[in-house]
Amino acid sequence: MGTPHPGSPPTGELPFFVYGTLLPGEPNHELFLRGRTTGERPAVLPRALLYDGPGYPYAIEGHGRVHGTLLTAVPGVYGELLGLLDHLEEYLGPGHPRNLYERVVREVELPGESGEGADGPGRDRAVEGRPGHGRAEEGEGIAAGAGPVRAWVYLAAAAVTRSLRTGGSLIDGGRWVTGRPPGGPRTP
């Protein structure tokens, strides 16, 4: 469970783009990511839409932008983190009929030092209590203003996407609002 499933594209240890309850300040960040990530930084997923779910959001392909955080696994815990997130997101393998989400590789945009980004002009979010972990340091794989970065993203699975497109509630602006009432541990 700690390695990419057969049939997944070759990727190496890609960073993860998160946009819901795994964001800093949300419940699953503390449960699943604390101590396992480094280089957390605001980012944007282009060509995607964000829909409200039962206490957590779903991102799908579309003509919009989803705001979130790009993060890298601490050296030595990548396989563990990948397995934890696959389990959390109910991802059983590419195209599996019981998937809630599909884990896919997408290009994610990073804000520039003075450009607009996930949290506004040139703002980086430091990881509390971890000096030197707001903006990625050189060699960490998430460089400031580096342009698009390939990352793992959990998008809604096909059946969920069909349901959202026909009767889902679109989140205007593509930004998950923190501090929502807890819906239980879940999602990206």
Automatic annotation (TrEMBL):
Which ranges carry the Gamma-glutamylcyclotransferase AIG2-like domain? 16-115
Composition bias of kind Basic and acidic residues appears in 121-138
Indicate the secretion signal residues. Answer: none
Q: Region Disordered: list its residue ranges.
A: 111-142
Can you tell which superkingdom this protein's organism belongs to? Answer: Bacteria
State the protein's name. Answer: Gamma-glutamylcyclotransferase
Natural source organism: Streptomyces rhizosphaericola
> Lineage from the top down?
Bacteria, Bacillati, Actinomycetota, Actinomycetes, Kitasatosporales
